Amino acid sequence: MMQTGVKGVQATEGNRGVYVLKHVDEDRAEFLFISLWESSDAIRRFAGEDMEKAVYHPRDKDFLVELEPKVKHFEVLVKP
Predict the structure, then answer these.
(1) DSSP per-residue letters across 9-77
(2) C-alpha distances in angstroms, 24 versus 4, 29, 53?
(3) Is the separation of the CB atoms in 70 and 77 below 8 Å?
(4) pLDDT at residue 16 above 90?
(5) Which member of 2, 37, 56, 66 lies 3.0 to 4.6 Å from 60 by CB, making a disulfide possible if both were Cys?
(6) Cα–Cα distance between 45 and 9 in angstroms, integer?
(7) CA 76, CA 49: separation in Å to the nearest integer?
(8) Distance (Å, rounded) from C-alpha 15 to C-alpha 12?
(9) Rg (CA), the chain
(10) What band does 59 get if pLDDT is binned at 50, 70 and 90?
């Protein structure tokens, strides 16, 4: 994930940061990938025209139990 998804997002113009959160429950780990962007246009530079379609890399299927087809976009309402 660090070599593909995180680096790709960070290298995209308009990216404002990436958080990868991990929760382990017994023998399974769940990851939450959060990326911050300056605009919808910046997201499209990374994701393509359909910015709600999830972007995966070839080896992701070797590690992920489920490949969500869509991502959710949220607007930041409170900043530090």
Answers:
(1) HHTSTTEEEEEEEEEEETTEEEEEEEEEES-HHHHHHHH-S-TTBPP--TTHHHH-S---SB-------
(2) 22, 4, 26
(3) no
(4) yes
(5) 56
(6) 10
(7) 22
(8) 6
(9) 13
(10) confident
